[in-house]
Recover the amino acids of this structure.
């Protein structure tokens, strides 16, 4: 052993560098990417342990665990990016179960040649979103695949939250007579992404609503005694999510079209794109359902929150063994709100 | 509302069908794929709750959380497949931290056109691996990307385990004088995958060692009082993993080449492929390090386990502020075992 051992290669170039296959090979380059990027931006007492898994305190009780892979295209869009979205999406899945989100994992699949400057921007955005939501990114993984075997970057996050004692929410708990609320305008995320993807021919100015809902859900859990269930209507939109709940609870629903909040700009873009806002993805909206006696309380809590200012009571649960979701239109008619069949918006999240 | 609502489309064809974009769109087709495949094979009391996150019992104390994305190519290889591997890999990351793995999430990224028969085979294999390891797949997610934006299937798993009271293991706990054990022959997984990928020109008969190590790790945690750390040497192999531990613990290591178990067939294949078995990935092998006084006990526990029959004590920790890992060769020389630099085997896990 005569030659001096080099502990480090040249620093990773986050300005003009590209993802190389060896960043995913588990050797020195992988270690460098981790230390110079992920460990730097995500740093916290759990991630910094540096072992194969993160050691996490856990109070006695129950956990909620949820996961989402994110493949949105384009990766940067008005109002967000794949990084923040990957935090919001999983934080929300944990939060709507009534839990306080605590810990996130982050698994990256990178395409060879992906600009490191974009990766850095995405990682910064994730770190910021995690901080805002009050969650820790505690463990992670990076894989690199050859050019043409991915589309830049895919991110999986898995979230773990703590369920406060006695809290029980489920899509199967709704009863006839219950009231359905939505926390604000629907369709923003889907339209923001789609309008960036296709040449709309006009400016939409629609921004994604991508946001972490856990502050709002915590207030609802505490303040609405008869809260039955919460859901974030992402892929498949409000229409599909309500159908899922109706099936789970073995009930029907009646919505009032006039009360469903949709921005004019979203309405216009949907018309242009041939989309129905009811089926367009949201990433910062909440459906909440409770008994009629708590409906005004639920609405008030939503409207007090910055993310729920345009909240509305949009309908009610009814007895219906067919689990139909119906909508009373402005003209006194009734139309069916079916599940989304086929594919309205691919790779929206 | 006059027409009868169809609740279900035709059944998913798992014999000759292909993944279609609408399987990932969050509508009826997504729901069908989930109910007819994932929910069916992974079914357990937690997954069956059917909400956005799974509600999980958790004893007071500490959790271990770890994640891995799997992009192995080919997806089926001698001794395993991407499905079983995605369970083994994450179970092992949790187990080597000293925890009892309990819950897994599963996030699928599918390429449009991927054969559903292959997907079914992979899901069955995951279900089987989870059952063997005694873990539950409690929550999941499926995304579909267009042809040419993935390579058939990528799977992320995240694992949560419970750390028994008082157990503290870390790659930073090793001390000079400690003894290093490996649970068996190295390099099997990498060679099995590579020999399937390239035309080797001869039969290797090497099978991947892909397996869940949590039974063995539980025995070591209970039976080896001075256990400092455990690791599974996957990407980067034994050489890189030992370098990581040496750095974390601020020590050096001396290995004895003659004691490192490598199958002759693996040795031959590595020679042919220009690989060093020290850097070839394992998916069912364990490094364990403890104080010298417990070394024989550690070895005996390993050898009693079906997955540790060829376990060996391969070296010791020494004082070295440079964190060098050295290897005494059969001829009385010493060579450096550096970190893997660059990329030895892409997409090996």
């Amino acid at each position: 052993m005569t030659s001096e051992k080099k502990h480090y290669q040249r620093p990773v170039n986050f300005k003009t560098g590209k993802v190389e296959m060896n960043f995913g090979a588990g050797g020195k380059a992988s270690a460098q990417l981790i230390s110079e990027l992920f460990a730097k931006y995500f740093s916290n007492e759990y991630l910094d342990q540096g072992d194969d898994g993160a050691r996490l305190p856990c109070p006695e009780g129950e956990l909620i665990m949820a996961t989402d892979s994110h493949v949105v295209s384009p990766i940067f869009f008005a109002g967000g990016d794949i990084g923040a979205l990957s935090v919001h999406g999983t934080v929300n899945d944990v939060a709507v179960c009534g839990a306080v989100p605590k810990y996130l994992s982050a698994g990256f699949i990178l395409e060879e040649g992906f600009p490191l400057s974009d990766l850095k921007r995405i990682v910064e955005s994730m770190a910021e979103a995690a901080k805002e939501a009050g969650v820790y990114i505690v463990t992670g993984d990076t894989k690199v695949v050859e050019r043409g075997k991915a589309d830049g970057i895919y991110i999986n996050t898995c979230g773990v939250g703590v369920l406060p004692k006695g809290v029980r929410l489920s899509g199967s708990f709704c009863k006839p007579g219950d009231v359905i609320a939505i926390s604000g305008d629907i369709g923003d995320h889907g339209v923001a992404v789609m309008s960036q993807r296709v040449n709309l021919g006009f400016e939409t100015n629609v921004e994604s609503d991508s946001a972490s809902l856990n502050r709002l859900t915590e207030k609802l859990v505490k303040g609405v005694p008869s809260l039955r269930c919460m859901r974030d209507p992402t892929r498949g939109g409000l229409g599909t999510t309500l159908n899922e709940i109706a099936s789970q609870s073995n009930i029907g629903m009646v919505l009032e079209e006039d009360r469903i909040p949709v921005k004019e700009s979203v309405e216009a873009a949907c018309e242009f794109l041939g989309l129905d806002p009811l089926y367009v993805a949201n990433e910062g909206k909440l459906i909440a359902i409770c008994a009629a006696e708590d409906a005004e309380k639920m609405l008030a809590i939503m409207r007090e929150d910055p993310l729920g200012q345009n909240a509305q009571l949009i309908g009610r649960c009814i007895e219906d063994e067919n689990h139909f979701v119906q909508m009373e239109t402005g003209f006194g008619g009734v139309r069916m709100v079916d599940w989304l069949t086929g594919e309205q918006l691919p790779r929206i999240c």
